[in-house]
Amino acid sequence: MENLKYLAMGEWFNTILATLVALLPITNPVSTAALFMSITGGRKKKERFDQALKASVYAFGILVAFLILGTLIMEFFGISIPGLRIAGGIMVIRVAFSMLKAETDEIEPDAKKEAKRKSDVSFTPLAMPSLSGPGAIAITIGLSAGTERWVDYSAIVLGIFLVILAAFLTLLAADKILKVLGKTGINALSKIMGFLLLAVGIQFLINGITAILVDEAFINRIIESIQTVA
Asked: How many separate domains does the chain show?
């Protein structure tokens, strides 16, 4: 009984770790910190704190909402788990390649100018699309696929919380981070994150394709097609 308890705890911590590994590279808090300073650099420290906090709360809420509603969304659109993993993998790989090429700024110049004029930039562009963009949402829905027990959901939610907490602390220290790393350091770190994200995306693809290939219904259709041709 005691061994089963330790095994369950181990699985719970592994789920938290898997969530961190999958989400942290795509949220890329350091890159968001550069954007944060570029649009709020002239504001008071208290105002920057409020914007960072609100952006983090919004991002957490968006990701948890898609985690909870992920299964319903899949059922509504008739999306299978393998299909979701393949689509999510392609999306994540695209983002990873842009990070490897140091194209980490998802905000267009005109949008950035508009953001500087806005009094509240917490929801957009900080929370969406920087911290919880399409790639992060795709990964979150992918994590929800096949998750049924509330214990697993709690582990994923805690993992999301830790990722967003890391992003919040990074935004608070954005000015210091930019001074230490500079643009070259941020680009180098983004490339490292991009490489990790590329591995996550490829694993998503492998899992999705493998699930299709071992699916009994799929195998039966292949056999029937071969028999028909023969």
From this structure: 1
